[in-house]
Each structure stands twice: as C-alpha cells, then as structure tokens.
Amino acid sequence: MQNIKHFIYDFLIDKGFSETTAIYLNMLGLLLALLLIAFVVDYVTKRLLWKFSSGVAKRTKTDFDDILIRNKLPRAVAHIIPLIILIEFVPQVFFDFEFTESIVENTLKVIAIVLALQIIRRLLHSIRDYLKTLPQYRDKPVDSYIQVFMIFAWLLGLFSIIAIVTGISFLKFAASLGAASAVIILIFKDTILGFVASIQVSINDMVRIGDWITFEKYGADGDVTEINLATVKVQNWDMTITTIPTYALISDSFKNWRGMMASGGRRIKRSVIVKVSTIRFLTAEDVEELKKIQLVTDYLNSISTKIEAQNKESGADKSLLINGVNLTNFGVFRKYLQTYIENHSAINKDMTFMVRQLEPTPQGIPMEIYAFSKDQRWVNYEYIIGDIFDHVLASVKYFDLEIYELSLGHNS
C-alpha cells in the first residue's frame, strides 16, 4: 500500500519535479485512478445485479421481486460497493492532506447515509406497492405507515449527518435533542396526530379506501381515494376533491355508507302527505268499486266478509258509517301501497319493507314507504324511487284522496 501511495510521487521526483508539485500531482493521479475504478465497479456491479435480479424475478412466481425492480432497488444497492471502495481508499489518496481527507471522508459518509435512506425508501415503497396488490390490504391506509417509517428514517439520517458535520458523537447529539423535544413535538403535531389517527382508523376499521363517506363539516360526500398520514382524500360526486385531516376521522362525526353497500340494499325512506279532509269511511258501494283494483281485490274480499260478520255479531247500526268496524279509503290505500311494494321487482324482499302512517302534521298525514332497493348504484337507485312515487302520486285519486300542495292564493 505504501508503494501505491508513493508510486507517482517517486516517479515525478525522479523526473526532476519539485517535492510540492510531486505531492499535488500524486494526489491528483491517485484521485483520478480511484474515481475511474469506482466508476467501472459501479457500472459492472449495476449491470450484473440488474441482470441477476431480473433473471430471478422471471423465474419466481411472486410479484414482490418484480416490484423491487420496478422501484429500482437493485440499482440503488449497486452503489454500495463503489462507495465502500471510495471510503476505504480516500486515506491513501489524501495521506498528505489531512484536512481535505477529513472533508472528503465526511462527505462520503453523508452520501452513504443518503444512499441508505434511498434504499430504505425504495424498499418501503416496494412493500407498499406489493401490499396493495393483496385483497386484504388493498383498502388499508398502508401509505400512512410508510410515511411514518420514512419520517423516522429521515430524522435519524438528518441527525447522523449533523453529528458527522459537527464532529459530535451521535449519542451526545441525540441526548442534546431532549431539551428541544417540546419544539419537535410542536412542529410535528399534525404528523403525530395523523399517525395516531391512522392507527385507530385501521384497527377499528372505520374507513377504507373505496368507502363512500359523508362528512358535512368538511363538505365531503363521495368515495375515499387515498388515506395518508396527514390527510384523507375524498372524491365527491361532483368530481371535486375534498381533503380531510386524518385525525378528524376520530375527533368528529362522519357517516360511512359501507354498511349499506355490504347489506345488499339501499334504503328508500320517503313519504307523501295526504290531506286530512279527503280521508273518509268507505260505503259498500265504494268497496265494490275498489275491488276492481287487482292489488287489493283479495284483501277487500277477505276483510269485507270479516267486517260484515263482526258488525252483525255486535249489532252495529250501519245507518251511520261511524258505527261498528269500517274501512277507510286511507287504510285501503296503505294496504294497496304495501302490496305494490311487495310485488315490485326492484325491492329487496329479504330486508325490511313497509308502508306506514306517520304522525299528523299541519299539512296532513304523511304516508311513508320504507324499503330497500336491490340496486345500490346512485343513478339506478334514484330511478327506482322515481318510478315508485310516480305510481304512488298517480294512484291517489283512485282512492278519492288528495296530496297536500301549498296554496298560493288559489282555492285548494
């Protein structure tokens, strides 16, 4: 090694160069030779490692090695060997220049730390991309965890670089940061809150990528497209993007429609208001006329026989309709709608469905249809509701009922 260090120096001295000139030219020649060797080793190592990793990836069944190559991890790893050569031989090149040697060594150590961070980043990104190909992780906030690891890695790398530049040992430098921990926590408050929130969101399975959520406070109503350490991105139905702080998912209230999507039905809960003044008892003639409506024919035949027998048994005076048991046009209409919903092809019969009378209002009595459509897609869902209530509004008049409409000065 000693002969190598003085090879050019001795040659130049023999040729009559001054000692100072020989020292500088010797250093320059060794430096160029070292850089050339490092470049050749880097090129060869990169080519060999790339061919080897590509061949292995083609022969294996797993996609993970393909993702490693796609993220160029082998290329980053190939830089390790030439960097080691440079660090090892720098003292031989700059043996006559201690100050320069120290600067170059520290610079190479900083480069080594940055290279290590790049390798870690590409490895973590490869793990993230691979996990996203697995069904059980596809809707999990993997990005949040990768970002947290990278933050800690970059902080550790940054502290190591500062320790190298300042000449302070890493342990002493880390210990001195204890006094500044409050400032660090304040600076990274959102990151810490986001990290804690992303863990709670994942553990409690509160939100997944692809979930439809409604978050009124932030004006969000759409599908979750991305869950990061600090933010959750929601693509609204109008194609706008809403960004929500991750910690807001555990500190505020929001609605997740995943349960509805997984249930096999989407709820229909809508009512029409019937004018009270149009509700009345039905005469025998009215009942006979309503029997022409096929959906209530069997019901009216059955219930009429029972009512007639009950009234005879109780001796009800039917000269007044209010006496005894009677049918109302409102009740028959409710039964009609119930039968209509039962026979509607778009309604999920395995879930709750009913037609109910709600509490009277100053406008009238609401008649509500409560059911679940089979099709959960928004456009189709709205079409189903429209189809049902088109029929409801058109059928009211056959029962001698009227829907409430706000009067604008005309007789109602």
From TrEMBL:
GO biological process, one term: cellular response to osmotic stress
Subcellular location field: Cell inner membrane
Keywords recorded for this protein, A-Z: Cell inner membrane, Cell membrane, Membrane, Stress response, Transmembrane, Transmembrane helix
Single annotated GO MF: mechanosensitive monoatomic ion channel activity
Gene Ontology CC: one annotated term: plasma membrane
Pfam families: MS_channel_2nd (PF00924)
Protein name as it appears in the record: Mechanosensing system component YbdG
SUPFAM superfamilies to which the protein is assigned, alphabetical: Sm-like ribonucleoproteins
InterPro entries named in the record: LSM_dom_sf, MscS_beta-dom_sf, MscS_channel_2nd, YbdG
Domain of life: Bacteria
Domain called Mechanosensitive ion channel MscS: residue spans: 190-258
Organism: Winogradskyella ouciana
Listed transmembrane segments: 23-44, 76-95, 107-124, 145-171, 177-199
Keyword Amino-acid biosynthesis: no
Record's bilayer topology term: Multi-pass membrane protein
